[in-house]
Design brief:
This is Undecaprenyl-diphosphatase. This protein has 175 residues and is mostly helical. It is built from 7 helices and no strands. It has one domain. Helices cover 67% and strands 0% of the residues. The radius of gyration is 17 Å and the shape is globular.
Amino acid sequence: MDLFIFELLHSLSGKVSYIDSMMIFLSKYGYILFILSVLSLFLFPAYRKMGLTGVVALVVGLLLNLLIGTLVDRPRPFIAHDIDILIPKEPSPSFPSDQALIAGVFMTLFWILAPKLRIPVVILGLLAVVSRIYVGHHYPSDVVTGALLGVILVPVTRRILSNRRGIREDKPLGL
């Protein structure tokens, strides 16, 4: 099933140049936008706790991904199968996806902080996650696992940090 969905999504690449360009952009730079968005929360005193929550969730998640990736050592689709990729990539473990984890943290933080922006935030995050399959770098289970880990780590980290003295709860942005 994983390979079937991968082939279905990846087969769309190379057909429409503006879609390819968008997916390449999101695959190459989406995670940078997401990290900068999380870090930008430190600029506003009222949202520093959520910024800290995001950074801790990212660090813990990326360390977990490194551990899981080392243990599972799943080859990327372009290594395991004869496919063309849209962006050159060095071989490294495919499972789970770091960029999907980053997108999961981004979507969850801004889901909590900006209720009025939930739909665009989730659309942007999901497009970035799907772009990793589209360009040929990940299987669907890689990105689903990475994103879910990010989604789970935010409330867990938030809960742990809220139990610490001196760290107050942030209020939604009102967006």
